[in-house]
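Thread: "does anyone have the structure for this chain?"

Original post by V.I.:
We have the sequence but no experimental structure in hand. Need at least a predicted one for the grant figures.
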Amino acid sequence: MFRKEFITALRRSLISLGTVILITSPSLSQAQSWPDKPVKLIVPFAAGGTTDILGRIFAQQMTNILGQNVIVENKGGAGGNIGAEVVANAPPNGYTLLLASGSMMTVNPYLYKKLPLNYATDLTYITAVAGGPMLVSVSPNLPVNNLKELISLAKAKELTFGSAGIGSQVHMAGENFTYAAGIAATHIPYKGEAPAINDLISGQIDFMVGNLPAAAGFAKAGKIKALAITSSKRVAQLPDVPTVAEAAIPGFVNVGWYALAAPAGTPKAIVEKIYIATQKALESEAMRKSLEINGLTAIVNAPKELDTQIKNESASWEKVIKARNIQAQ
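Reply from O.Q.:
Generated one for you, tokens below.
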């Protein structure tokens, strides 16, 4: 009797094991062969902005390392939410990735009443990729030549500042600056950083706190007036431009950053492959030089470190959002 029960139990165990193998084998096989076709890198902002610039530099290096084309697709709108939703709804197989700005994870959950995705559960965060300072710049038509003059003018009359959209890194840097400076200014959102800079050049808006890679070239060409950099130290691209802390607001620092994510449920083996490839890309001399030219610095951190960074910055931005009463539909 015991022998019969034992054989029956053994058969059931073998059947269960076979079922597990059948379920997991495709995932294992998929992870081993990844990538065997092109990979899409979703940039959730318009072409010409800093996320786009970084995305194209990064995609080229990843193409070299993976031996498969990494193709950038711009899916802009709603502070990056539209592009993030595309990735969250994609098959979790490593072939659709997201290059997100830090504000998407740390700001959007507090800014939007309704989101098309849950940033905490619908994405798998792989690593930060790069970070860099912002540039406070004004229209060439604005009668100011330094940061103190801009602040004084903003206290005397209502000014406008542009951004890459509500909740974007550029928007929140502008809000952070006006909050720290004790001034009020009307926010004008655009569908990307590039169109905002175009209107800054033409005088349609008064100032911006834009990402350095997108704004530095226009500052060097004299098309916009660079007043201050938001890092703790001056930058090689614009060595004569003081920091915000030097120019007017002691202790002020606002550094933007970007991270790589995949759909939730992406196999750990594929995530690990992407992480290793990203690390190699960021360590390459070509990538380092490209980032340096654009005022960016490579960042590689483990998912747990990235999660901690997101939590810490989320708490800080929540305070700014509530103090400024910023809302998005």
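V.I.: this helps a lot. The radius of gyration is 23 Å.
O.Q.: and The mean pLDDT is 90.
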